[in-house]
Every structure is written in structure tokens, then in C-alpha cells.
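We emphasize that the prediction below concerns an isolated chain of 309 residues; any contacts that depend on oligomerization or on bound cofactors are therefore not represented. The input was used exactly as deposited, without trimming of termini.
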Amino acid sequence: MTIAEALVAAQTSRFAGLDPLLPAAVAPPDGVVLTAALPAGEQVAAALTRSMTGPGTAASLWSAAEQWELHPLVGAAGALGVELLLREWRRVLDRTTLGEDSSCLVGWPARDAEVSQTLLGHGFVPLSVLAVRPPSATAPVAVPASYRIRPVTEADLDVAVDLALVELAHSAMVGSSVVRTDAAELKRAAMASRLAAGDPMWLAERDDEPAGLVEYWCADATPLSWLGCRLRPGRWGYLNCLSVLPAHRGRGLGRALTATAHAAMLREPVAGLFLYYSPPNPLASVFWARQGYRPLWTHWEVRPAGALR
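Result of the prediction step, given as a C-alpha cell string:
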């Protein structure tokens, strides 16, 4: 067994002890290889990747233009291994010219409090959480009086885009989202594509006026795919966007929209449901826990990348 294989096996074992829903650890992707030695001489390693999110792409709405991501392989070392690799990462950045629209990113199991403490010490902020929910039905949720929820049609595209932009603007205040100058065009293209593909969306209305939106689709977590590195293998329902206009909040409309999406997703066999939310968001962090979701992965960021300590 190679050193890398031994680290993968040990990291898989550690992850299983942290959270039974975590998938097996995998070897890091290709990138700049960082290594460090523990006090007893054992090695830990990581791949450091750099990616650019070009203007005019959907990803530009939730990420910095220049992303540096660390993929640690620390086996059973946990916080100490991550600490040593973060120091190596800082040395790499010291030799690099960094832009303002840049970030350092680490995805790590949400229940690993020891590593969380280490990341906080280097200036990271938990800007996004991948949260999961079991594929179990819940009691029906009544639609608030005077509201109705119906499927979105192509004729509703303008309204759906406006509602999605409301969610984007709020997320940008409390998370990793970015309101780019072409946000409306990007949202329109993405939502038109999903509608054409038949991905379900629902619109909440009161007196024929829009009040909220929810959309979802299903995705397969396959071995070695990006999603397969985050979720156990299988087909998963992904709740992509929930938006309720401020004037209609606090009435149970978000719960009713979510329940509508859940009921539809659970009509087919899925391993579970997942979504992303921002821990600093005072609405989302409480709301999604009440809908049965709990954190599986935390995505930690430093923006700009040069602020890494």
C-alpha cells in the first residue's frame, strides 16, 4: 500500500467515525502537491488547485473569479495535519500575485470541530454548508390562507427570474454568492434551460401576484464524480432555490413551498435530499434545520485569497 493509499484509508475511517453519512475519502485531484511531516515523522499531503470562473458563467454568481482550493489528505491526523498544510499553503501564496476577486477554499466534514477551530484560526469563514435530509415523508403542510402554489410555466420565466434574484441578493449579504452585473441574464439562461429540461419549479401567488418560488432537480452521486465525493452513492434530490418575497415572510409560505418540493422529490426513490445554505444567514440556518436538514459538509472560505493567515 502506498503512502497515499494509506492516508485515504485512514481518512475514510476517521470520516466514518465523525459522521456515518459521509462517503469514503478519495485521492485528491491533480494539483500542486503540498506535504508536511508530523512530529513522529508521518507524512500528510494535499493537492492545491487553482481555477478561474470566467465572466458570463453561472458559477460566477456563487464563487470568486479566482479560486484556490486545498484538498487535504491527512489520514487520522485531523487538526494537526490540516494546520501544517495550511502553513505550507500560506508559503505558496506568499510567492503568488493574487487579485481581489479571489478566495481560498476548503471543504471539510461539518462535524469535525477540531479542524473547524484550526480553519477559524487561519481566517476562514464558514460561508456555505451542504446539508442533507433523509428520504422520509413528513406531515402535509397547509398552504397559508389566500395563497396558492402552482407549477411554473415558460410564461412565468420573468417572474421566476425576479424571485431568484431576490434570493441571490439576500444570499450575497450573508454568504458566498456574488451579485454580478449580468446576474439577471445568467439567471434567465439557467432557469430557461431547466424549464426546457422539465425540472420542476413552483410559484406561490396571492391575488395572482407572485410571492415565492421553489425549484429542485435530481442528480446522481457516482464514484469519483464531484457529487460522489460529497454524498454516498445514489440518486439524490437537490433543492436549488427557495425564495419568498419579504412582504410575505413569516406566514408559513416557505414551509409550504418546501413541502411541495419534498413531496415531488420523494415520488421517486432517492437516497436522500440535499441543499446548500449559508451558516451566517439568520433565516436559513434556523429554517432548514426545522425542515429536517442537517449539515454534512462545511465549505470554508477566505476572501480575498491573500487574507489567509
